[in-house]
Structures are given as C-alpha cells and as structure tokens.
Amino acid sequence: MFEFFINKIIKSFRNVQKRSCDYLVSKQKVDGGWGETFASCDTCEYTESEVSQAVQTSWALMALMAARYPDRDVIDRGIKCLISQQDLKGHWEMQGITGVFNKSCAIDYPNYQNIFPLWCLGRYNTMYGNKDFE
Description:
Blueprint: H1 2-26, H2 39-43, H3 54-66, H4 72-84, E1 99-101, E2 105-107, H5 112-128
Antiparallel strand pairs: 1-2
Helix pairs in contact: 3-4, 3-5
C-alpha cells in the first residue's frame, strides 16, 4: 500500500512539474528570454515586460534545467539571449525593479543582475557542456 501512495505522489509531482514547465515555455519571448514587471507582485498575475530581462531569464532557465526539460532548443535560445545581454566587462545591466512587498515597497537587488545569470550559465555548462553560441 505504501508503494501505491508513493507512486501516486510521484505521478502527481510529475504532472505539476510538466504544467509548470509548459507555463514557463509559454512565456518565453521571441528573443529566447523571459521578462516580467514588478506589477505582477501587486496584481498577483503575470505581467510581461516589453523586453527580456537577465534575472527573470536566469530564473526561468534554472527552473527548466532543474526539471530536466526535454526540449533543449528552449533552453539554448534562453542561454543565447542571456549571453547577448552581457556587456564587454562580463556584467549584465540593471533592468528594473526585481520585487515588491506589501504591494507598496519596490525592492532593487543590485547583485541579482550578475549572480543569477552567472549561476545559470554555470549550471548550463555543468549539465550540457560548453557550447559556442556565436
């Protein structure tokens, strides 16, 4: 009986994981990245930004990689977008407010624009190896 319940939990988790990945992929922008405005924090609904943002692209890619999303093209397009946003010094530009709390206080995390893209690229390299995106 225990095995029955474990198998049900695993199947349920996989369904949730698939729906979550499908949702992320549905929000991928034409350039391969993702972007969301801080208005989402206020409305509790996804509010797409006009341009892809390095931090949100990194978060989406790390989630897809953690889930071992099977369509590698989705991930490669996101990585290519992330690399294209990197400046000559290896940094990413601050692209807006990262979060809001209490629906009234905007938060800016200046280190996020470099930490998450680097973490994401490192995870990609560990999982898939070094790929030339030129």
